[in-house]
Amino acid sequence: MKKITLTLISVLAAGALAMAKGPGKPGEESSGFTVMKSGSAQFKLIYKASEAANVRVAIYNDRQELVFSEVFRKRSGFLRPYNFENLPEGQYTVELVSPEGKQVQTIIHRYELPTPSSVHVTRISSEENKYLITAKGEDEITVRITDDRNQLLRLDRHEVKGEFAQVYNLKKVNGSFTIQVSDKNGKSAVVNN
Predict the structure, then answer these.
(1) Each residue of 84-124: pLDDT tens digit?
(2) What angle (nearest 5°) sits at the alpha carbon of residue 123, between those of residues 117 and 125?
(3) Core-most of 72, 110, 119, 151, by most CB within 10 Å?
(4) What is the pTM of this model?
(5) How open is the CA angle 105-106-109, to the nearest 5 degrees?
């Protein structure tokens, strides 16, 4: 799976780099670069040229203030990650200067909200009043179980980071009950018995 992902990233990067280069004369090679988002606050700059040369990368904020710069010496290509974690959200300009000239790309830095969990409540068919609660993602979920008079029987909070599963045994509950599982955004799954 990792090999397929790396291959796919390479193909996408090559395509993006080809588009970044723009049209050229047949047989003429030129330099090109692209910047791709690679995480919540991470970007990757990919650069490729036909000949090794010194290359300067500069990043400017939306007020055209220099945020970061560096020089790569004698390079014909590189892949460089940039972490925007300590920078405010907004529009940034990435400028690459090589012997072939200046190239510019604008990027938008926004923190992505945590992936909401997908929550499921499933009755275990072979057991009386046993339920499996599963969640996937990054979230905090609340499990609330009430009886037929809406009296709270149980209240649990779980921090979900990846996958979560727990069996709730409600054999001792007399009468009907309701299981409500909700995430921080208010999405919920409800089962009435």
Answers:
(1) 988 998 999 999 999 988 999 999 888 765 555 577 787 87
(2) 145
(3) 119
(4) 0.48
(5) 135
Q: Which two tokens stand for residue 49?
A: 């040229």
Q: DSSP string of 35-74?
A: EEE-SSSEEEEEEEEEEEEEEEEEEE-TT--EEEEEEEEE
Question: pLDDT at position 57, please?
Answer: 97
- Take residue 27 and report the two structure tokens written for it: 């047989």
Residue whose token pair is 């395509």 = 15
Domains of the chain: 30-109 (2.60.40.3080), 118-192 (2.60.40.2150)
Please tell me the distance from the alpha carbon of residue 120 to that of residue 122, in angstroms, as a whole number. Answer: 6
- Cα separation, 99 vs 9, in Å, equals 27
Tokens found for residue 141: 């979920």
The DSSP code for 107 is E
**Most confident of the following: 72-86, 103-117, 133-147:** 72-86
Question: Tokens standing for 8?
Answer: 């796919």
**In the block, which residue shows the tokens 């796919």?**
8
Across 13-27, 33-47, 113-127, least confident range: 13-27
Give residues with Cβ within 8 angstroms of 158, minimum separation 6. Answer: 135, 140, 141, 143, 164, 166
The rounded distance, in Å, linking the Cα atoms of 35 and 186 is 35
